[in-house]
Amino acid sequence: MYIDGLPYLLRKLRTVKVENMGTVT
């Protein structure tokens, strides 16, 4: 469960980071 949840969180965080960078830029 933890292993399955880890990639999900990383993926979500990565998406948020990309969106934030795109918005800032």
Quick synopsis:
The protein has 25 residues and is mainly alpha-helical.
Question: Which features would summarize this protein structure in a list?
Answer:
1 helix
Gyration radius, to the nearest Å?
A: 11 Å
* Broad shape: rod-shaped
| Element-level helix/strand string | H
What is the tally of helical segments?
A: 1
* Main sheet overview: none
How many strands in all?
0
Averaging pLDDT over every residue, what do you get? 74
Termini separation: 36 Å
- Helix/strand class: mainly alpha
Helix content: over 70%
Q: What ranges have pLDDT less than 50 throughout 5 or more consecutive residues?
A: none
Task: Classify the beta-strand content into a percent band.
Answer: under 5%
How would you describe this protein?
By secondary structure, the protein is mainly alpha-helical. 92% of the residues lie in helices and 0% in strands. It is built from one helix and no strands. The termini are far apart. The relative contact order is 0.14.
Secondary structure elements and pairings:
Layout: H1 2-24
